[in-house]
Structure formats: structure tokens, C-alpha cells
Sequence to fold (376 residues):
Amino acid sequence: MKSLRIKSLFSSLVLFVLVSSPTLSSATSLGINYGQLGNNLPQPTDVIPLINSIGATKAKLYDANPQILSAFANTGIEFMVAIGNNLLSSMGDPQQALTWVKSNVQTYLPATKITGIMVGNEVLTLNNTELSNNLVPAMEGVYAALVSLGLDKSINVTTAHSLGIMESTYPPSAGAFQQDYKVYMQAILSFHVQTGSPFYINMYPFFAYTSSPSEVDLNYVLFEPNNGFVDPTTKLLYDNMLFAQIDAVYSAITLLGYKGVSICESETGWPSKGDADEVGATLDNAAKYNSNLIKMVAQNKVTPLGSSLDIYIFALFNENMKPGPTSERNFGLFEPDKMPVYSVRLTDGDTVSSSSVKRYNSLILLFFCIASIAIL
Fold:
């Protein structure tokens, strides 16, 4: 009887967490990249209210961390798990792909809502012929494993690209893939058409701005009011860089003869801190970029060419073990102590700040105390 009471209390707690946090419209698609390159990150169970607090309904991992997948059981949060580039060659083997899917996906279903598998990350722009040649066979091997397990209708297979696959992004109507990647892109797009999976790409207007701050309007990259520009071919107005980049990718896909492939932004974000030469990496700019982006997703905004916003913000935490410039360790919405790095405006009247998260965590602690007394 006591175990049933505990189970009932835990279910109530999960429901409490889900309904107490500010959320976006159910029609939107906001996700968060849950990286783990830090030696001071909180336990996965402590992360659940943080994801709910920003209104995200999805999370993307860079692996298939068993602790995280187990911790998020029965939360309703959708997960994208990943297969590292180092495993691409083995995923072309049907048996190895099946073994991986059984161990890293099937075992957590249906309690944990896994809806996608990311096969490799930014493979083509690594300019490694062996990896590039293994990419599509790996995607096909994983998809075949899902089919054999009857999971292909609920879990999609895809890969994430760097914007470096593009030869041209301006104007959006002239979007085109680099010539060296076209043969791979055709095979990848054919896979997406055949399986109905989306095309994922990482987009960072921050990098365009910090490399040419005198030539790029800061308001244009932060979704702030600006004059924008009109594409000379389509006559469509673009008032932010992210929309222009998305539509440039759409144009590149169309140029190769593929239509009906949806585009998702697997990574986008803005750092709150950077090195001296990383112009624009400030708390204020990061707050504006992510707040404005979240609000646009909540408003179901679409790009001028009609692409919906299916976005994973990068990233959940500041990760102190990431290599590279200072900005790489400061893309997080939260510090490892679970406090927001800056206030994020979800809507005009709803803000995620340090005080709101502390209040939210206090409510959860109170619930646990009441539950403990009830159990005793």
C-alpha cells in the first residue's frame, strides 16, 4: 500500500511540475540543447523544472545518456538522442545498428518520449571523406533498425549540418549548397523524402555579426526593430538574419529538386560572454536574442517563404569543459547552480529570472516535504 501511495505522490509531483511552469502554445516547437561538457552540472532530475520553466517541450542530447533518459521518464518532454561521428562506420552494419537502437532507445520507451535520432553532427564540413561516405549508410542502418522494431512511425532519423555547407545565403532566393557537398546532399535529401524526416541545420547569426560587426546591423541579428532588406527576386522583406538563413537553406534544397522537406534549427543561440575579439558577446545581447526568439516561436511565426520555427536553443547550461574561445562556455541559459544567467522574457508579461526560479524550486521543495509527511 505504501508503494502505491509513493507512486501516486510521484505522479502528482510530475503533474505539478508540468502545470506550474510557464509554457508555450502546444502548437509551437521549442527545444533546448542539453549538453554535458561540464564537471559541475546538476543531476538530471533537477533539470526537469528548468526545461519546463522556459516553456520548452523538447530536448536534444549529444549522446544517449542513460541517466538523463531514465530521469525524464513520464515527463512528456520529447528527446532527440544522438549517435557520435565515431560510430558512423558501425551503424552501416544492420546488426550493430539494431543493437544500438535496442540498447539506447527501445529500452527507455514508452516512459521516456524519444522522437528522434541524430546520426552524426556537422559531418560534411569536417571534410573527412570516410565520415562523409559513411553518413547516409549509417542513417539508413538506424532507420532499418527502427522499421524492424516497429518504431519508424514514431521516431525519425536525421543528421545535423553546419551552415558551412552553404555556398551562398544572400539573398535568400540565391541560397545554394557548396559544390563539393552536392552529391552528399542529394543522397541525404532523398533519405529525408523517403522517410519523412526533417532536415536539421545549426544556425548562429552571432558568428556572422562578430566576424563583421561594422557591416552587420546588430538589431537585424537580435530580432530588434530595423529596416531589413527586400530580396530582389522574391520581393519578400527580411528583418532578421535567422529567417534569411532558413529561407536560404530552403532555396538550396529546392534548387536540387527536393520539395516538402521541413527545415529545423538544431542549434541557435547567443553567448553571454566572450573574448575581447568576440564582439557582441554580452548578457544584454544574449537576453535579447533568446527572449525574442522564444516569443516568436510562441507566436507561431513563420519565415517569409513559409518555414515554421522548429528550434532547439543552444544551450541549457554554461559548460565549463568546452574547448575553444570563451564564448563556447557561455551559451547557456542557466548556470550549473540552476540559476538563470540572465532574465529571459517568455512573453510580454512572463519572465524567467533568478527570483522566479528560486520561487519555483521552493514550491517543489515544499511539495516534497508534504509528500514525505504523507508517506510517514
In short: The two ends are 12 Å apart (CA to CA). The chain is about 40% helix and 15% strand. The first strand starts at residue 29 and ends at 33. Residues 272 and 283 are 4 Å apart (CA to CA).
